[in-house]
Amino acid sequence: LWTINQNFGGLENMSLIPGNVGTTPVQNIGAYGTEIKDTFVSCEAMNILSQEMKSFTKEECNFGYRESIFKQEAKDKYVITSVVFKLTKRNHKINTSYGDITKELENQNVTIPTLKDVSNAVIAIRQSKLPDPKELGNSGSFFKNPIISKELFEKVHQKFPEVKFFEVSPTEVKVPAGWLIEHSGLKGYRKDDAGVHKNQALVLVNYGNATGQDILNLSKYVQKTVFDKYGIAIEAEVNVI
Q1: Where are the domains of the chain?
Q2: Of 55, 121, 190, 230, which has the maximum CB count within 10 A?
Q3: Tell me, what's the pLDDT at 97?
Q4: What is the pLDDT of residues 61-92, one digit of tens each?
């Protein structure tokens, strides 16, 4: 929110994502049509073993969908100490392509949105769908949206014509994991104190006394249930330690 108050554009669609700046490249975090890689320039990181500093360019980070070098060959080897972003000061590229943002702006009677308008819309959407970690334990979106081949998608679509999807390339389709989980009958599912959130099926929550193993077991149950119904494997977005 500091960047918005300074009229720096580029991060507004990621308003209210919990976490620290240094963790953003690890996950290539993203929300509502944008990802960190869109504005990322470089980062400085300390090698945990040698304590030597190293600079990583955007290309060296090897960003992908919720992926980076820090989740692959550099996993558990570095601590990111600073990040450089390239943000706009004028002629902002307002991104309202994500459907929910457009609807929320309409609800707020905004026709020519500013950075602040987009940020407010994103915050309103997140607060309506996602639990506050301070009130209900969670790690945000637990699963990635699976990207599958068009060949597999056609088989799924033939059996389930209502399935939601987004074309990401001539040969690949992204299917919302939240939709798959919800339509597998798991939205709001609970086993003891581990559960699937009632408003957003991507989020696994701890109602009080669930252990890490309880949450992990629940995630595996969700993955199996979705695969058994749709034949689509969904991967965890979180890092399991």
Answers
A1: 2-129, 137-230
A2: 121
A3: 83
A4: 999 988 999 999 999 999 999 999 999 999 99
Q: What is the pLDDT of residues 119-172, one digit of tens each?
A: 999 999 988 888 888 889 898 889 999 999 999 999 999 999 999 998 889 999
Beta-carbon contacts of 76 under 8 Å, excluding residues fewer than 6 positions away, are: 48
Q: Is 141 a catalytic residue?
A: yes
Distance of CA 157 to the CA centre of its chain: 24
Out of 68, 141, 184, 219, the active site residue is 141
Q: What is the pTM of this model?
A: 0.77
Q: Which among 12, 35, 104, 237 is annotated as catalytic?
A: 237
3-state secondary structure of 76: coil
State the architecture of 2-129 in CATH terms: 2-Layer Sandwich (3.30)
Alpha-carbon distance of 241 to 44, in angstroms, equals 23
Rounded distance, CA 182 to CA 200, Å? Answer: 8
CB 61 within 8 A of CB 39: no
HSE-up of 235 (CA within 13 Å, CB side)? 11
Query: What is the rounded average pLDDT for all residues in the chain?
Result: 93
Q: Give CATH for domain 137-230.
A: 3.90.78.10
Q: Which of 12, 15, 35, 66 is catalytic?
A: 66
